[in-house]
Design goal:
The chain folds into two domains: 49 residues, no CATH class; 377 residues, Rossmann fold (3-Layer(aba) Sandwich). It is built from 20 helices and twelve strands. The strands form three sheets. A six-stranded parallel beta sheet has the order 3-2-1-4-5-6, sandwiched between helices. The chain has a four-stranded parallel beta sheet with strand order 7-8-9-10, with helices on both faces. Strands 11-12 form a two-stranded antiparallel sheet. The longest helix has 28 residues. The protein is globular, with a radius of gyration of 31 Å. The two termini are 62 Å apart.
């Protein structure tokens, strides 16, 4: 399979390059441009062709187990059934373990499928699920965790309540984080080859107006998966995201969606309802669900405000397994929900300004690509950028522009070493005993050294004007851009990183951020293998008779050649007997030869 994919890559790249090369003759810069374009086109075609390549299933499935969340209905329900049919031990996490979906699984699947109560928003239920799965594994190992549980809603930013934002983050993002962190020790015990699968969404790649809250939660989820993949590489645990478009599953129930739209609309302020009007709200529902009711709009009369600048934020460093859920919540509450809270509160005043009002959100380049050790911070900034993208597309109808300023790291008080050391110590102390034993204090100290060294290489405080100038241009500039990345060099670097294939980005960011010292669990595993070499795959031994290889089954003889000397097998029987008799008396080892020489 690997050879087929490699040959396919080489073939498509060669063909693409040859076709494009015919259209561009010139100096080396054109050669480079054509080659880079060929790489991009190749990546596009490979992704498309991969859908048609055969897929193979792992062997020894009966001794592997998989835990799947959200198995009551939809994707999770179907995944649990398919895995059970393939012969794996399946633990189906259900929100309602006595509900219809759970009963259907128990009735239609084999006895090796076990329904487990699992509300991904409850730390107690997730911890109980870990205990139960661990007790039932016996001789099998937990091969994978599939995070599928999720909720969906439609609502524009100004109608969507902060409670709905919190609910989406709590289930879609923090739910996946909670389950993954809880089950990682069992997956790591599987050894090399364990997997974490996270069902995200294409809405986590680009934000559609009306899906801003949902998209923000999925952007954060994908950012978490990217960071986790780069951090788990050292344990040989792979992390995968499945990003479907919309499918008509129970998550898209019209009655449920209509209920959430009504609830959000009723909870919105009077000014918001008057600014949009019930006619617009109903047209919005028509666009998403096909409803047809119409009503009239209202009036507004408020003071004017030209712009809102969301700059408040906090920063931390911590690997996924050490970082507490409280820290994830704090980062989301300040970096993302803080910006949402302020923006929603001030939008009526900005809208009263008329055409030309602006919203400026200071995000981070960590909201574009996730560096190992910054997973929690990056997830909050990915969500913030997703919110800004959705808001920009929704506010276009009011002629209100939305802008993001995405700086790299600057040596500001937010990067205080004492504060960061304190948060790392707090997270490390709060982590479980198994997590601390798996990483080890030496790895933790190397992690701090690595990051503190990187932060010392941050842009100096004297360069803060780069960020300030971009914020001012976004606020009062004549032609503001939708996205600012302070510093031309940083802009070029970010564009290059985002244009590279994901495996290349993973390798670059891992080498930049991960300590050179492997975690304690990896060191112990290597030591066990060195102490007991028979645990390693054995290669066939090559037996030797003097200096000539002796095979248990002789290799095929070469074509007959009258000029070559006869082989031992072709020699006369008397000659072979003489050679064999001599070989019986010949020393077989160096020590025997020395002993005979001393006797003489």
């Amino acid at each position: 399979m690997f050879r087929l994919q490699t040959a396919l890559h080489v073939g498509v790249l060669s063909a693409t390059y040859a076709v494009l090369r015919l259209a561009a003759f010139g100096p080396w810069i054109q050669e480079l441009a054509v080659f880079l374009l060929a790489l991009l086109v190749t990546s596009f075609f490979i992704d498309a062709l991969r859908q048609f390549l055969p897929r193979y299933v792992i062997d020894h499935r009966s001794d592997k187990a998989v835990f799947v969340t959200g198995c009551d209905t939809g994707f999770g329900h179907a995944v649990a059934r398919r895995l059970d049919a393939l012969g794996l031990r399946v633990f189906a996490g259900c929100l309602f373990p006595d509900g219809e979906g759970a009963r259907t699984l128990q009735r239609d699947c084999s006895s090796s499928l076990t329904v487990v109560a699992c509300d991904v928003t409850s730390q107690e239920q997730v911890a109980a699920a870990v205990v139960r799965v661990g007790a039932l594994l016996k001789d099998t190992k937990l091969h994978a965790v599939v995070n599928n549980a999720g909720v969906f809603t439609i609502s524009e930013v100004e109608w969507c309540s902060l409670d709905m934002y919190r609910r989406l983050f709590e289930i879609n993002c923090l739910g996946a984080i909670r389950v993954t962190k809880a089950f990682l020790p069992l997956v790591r015990a599987h050894g090399a080859g364990g997997r974490v699968v996270i069902v995200a969404s294409l809405a986590g790649r680009y934000t559609i107006p009306g899906l801003s809250a949902y998209s923000a939660s999925k952007h954060a989820t994908i950012s978490f998966a990217d960071g986790l993949r780069r951090e788990m590489h050292k344990f040989n645990i792979s992390v995968h995201t499945v990003e479907p478009s919309t499918y008509r599953t129970p998550i898209l129930s019209e009655s449920v969606l209509e209920g959430t739209v009504k609830k959000d609309w009723d909870a919105a302020g009077e000014e918001v309802r008057a600014s949009y009007g019930e006619h617009y709200r109903d047209e919005f529902k028509v666009k998403f669900m096909g409803d047809t009711e119409e009503r009239e709009a209202g009036e507004q009369d408020l003071r004017e405000l030209h712009a809102v600048v969301n700059n408040a934020g906090v920063f931390t460093i911590s690997e996924v397994e050490w970082c507490s859920l409280d820290m994830y919540r704090r980062l989301f509450e300040i970096n993302c929900l803080g910006a949402i809270r302020v923006t929603k509160a001030f939008l009526p005043l900005v809208r009263a300004h008329g055409a030309g009002g602006r919203v400026v959100i200071v995000a981070s380049l960590a909201g574009r690509y996730t560096i190992p050790g910054l997973s929690a911070y990056s997830a909050s900034k990915h969500a913030t950028i997703s919110f800004a993208d959705g808001l920009r597309r929704e506010m276009h109808k009011f002629n209100i522009s939305v802008h993001t300023v995405e700086p790299s790291t600057y040596r500001t008080p937010i990067l205080s070493e004492s504060v960061l050391e304190g948060t790392v110590k707090k997270d490390w102390d709060a982590a479980g005993e198994e997590v601390r034993a798996s990483y080890g204090e030496h790895y933790r100290d190397e992690f701090k050294v690595k990051f503190m060294g990187e932060l010392k290489n941050a842009r100096p405080a004297s360069k803060i004007y780069e960020v300030v100038d971009d914020i001012l241009d976004a606020t009062v500039g004549v032609e503001p851009r939708a996205r600012y990345v302070p510093s031309a060099a940083v802009t070029l670097r970010s564009q290059l990183i985002q244009s590279l294939p994901l495996p290349v980005v993973d390798s670059m960011l891992e080498s930049r951020a991960c300590p050179p010292t492997p975690p304690a669990a990896v060191i112990r595993q290597r030591q066990r293998q060195l102490k007991n070499p028979y645990t390693m795959p054995q290669k066939p031994f090559l037996k030797r008779f003097f200096s000539v290889p002796h095979f248990e089954k002789p290799p095929p003889s070469p074509a007959h050649d009258d000029h070559r000397p006869p082989s031992f097998a072709e020699a006369p029987e008397q000659t072979r007997a003489e050679v064999s008799a001599e070989s019986d008396h010949a020393p077989h080892t160096l020590s025997e030869a020395i002993a005979e020489e001393n006797e003489e």
